[in-house]
Here is the input.
Amino acid sequence: MHTVALSSLGKVFTWGCNDEGALGREGAENVPLEVAMPIPVTDVSAGDSHTTAYSTEVNHVFIWGLYRVRLTSNMVLECNEREVS
Here is the structure.
């Protein structure tokens, strides 16, 4: 499990378990550290092993880590480190 926080200036901070790159950064896992973002973001979300940050001002979404969806056919969908704009 990991945590993501958003500052009032649009900066993203993560800490906790970095399985599958969920923190989006290197360094200590047990302290909040800033994730380098190309633009300020407006919202964040933490999943099992992934993090999402997005800006509603410019319609950009940033996803890092590993996103898994278990489907009824036992197939696993995996997405790694993608920027969607």
In short: The chain has one domain: 2-84. Strands lie at 2-6, 12-16, 33-35, 43-46, 49-55, 60-70, 76-84.
